[in-house]
Amino acid sequence: MRSWLNNIQWCAACGDTLIIWAIKKAFAELEIESHERVVVSGVWCSGKASQYIDWYAAETLHGRSLPFATWVKLAKPEMTVMAMWGDGDGYGIWVGHFVHACKRDLDITYIVMDNENYALTTGQASPTTPIWAKTKTTPEWNTSEPFNPIEIAKKAWCSFAKIADSIKFAEMKDIIKEAIQHKWFSLVSIHQACPSFKRW
User: Fold this and answer.
1) What's the pTM value of the predicted model, to 2 decimals?
2) Total domains, the chain
3) Structural domain for 116, as ranges
4) Cα(22)–Cα(10) distance, integer angstroms
5) Is residue 194 within 8 Å of residue 41, measured between CB atoms?
6) pLDDT (tens digit, 9 = 90+) per residue, 176-195?
7) Helix (H) or strand (E) run with residue 169 in it
8) 137 located within any domain
9) How far is CA 128 from each of CA 51, 87, 105, 198, rounded to the nearest angstrom?
10) Could you tell me where the DSSP H helices lie in 7-126?
11) Tens digit of pLDDT for each residue in 116-129?
């Protein structure tokens, strides 16, 4: 464990590190070997996730982790497939991929690292930014109601959609395990710290 923690490129106290640690522990507890799993990430902060897990991995184009993960699952249905995004591309720029992945209902675990802002581009408002928050693009306050991914997922017939919090490590790990074991499309939307740009 120490070697991968030494190579982390996220900001100190970023919730992404705890999320990766929880995923690694979930797979260990489920005894799913590295050659039996694939992780697909996009870009931005969450895109680095695939670099820190010992398995088959792909860091794809911006917003393309779910289409890529869908292709992997169709080509190798026996593999455990996980897709990872941030809230900006997952719930904003490429929300159509999310909705249609819910409808297709393939056995893919979808982890969204939700820090409520576009952190890699230094703190603009994202689809999940609270309505009152001040950001780079909303200097007085955010006037848009935040996106509710759980409700959207349920309306698109997703049978497993849960929220976790990176601070509640054991609970988060157990929810991830439950999602991996669910044999249809599963969403785990994880609230997380963003020490560099989240000020609410």
Assistant:
1) 0.91
2) 1
3) 33-191
4) 16
5) no
6) 999 999 999 999 999 998 88
7) helix 169-181
8) yes
9) 26, 7, 24, 12
10) 15-30, 44-47, 65-75, 87-88, 95-104
11) 988 888 889 999 99
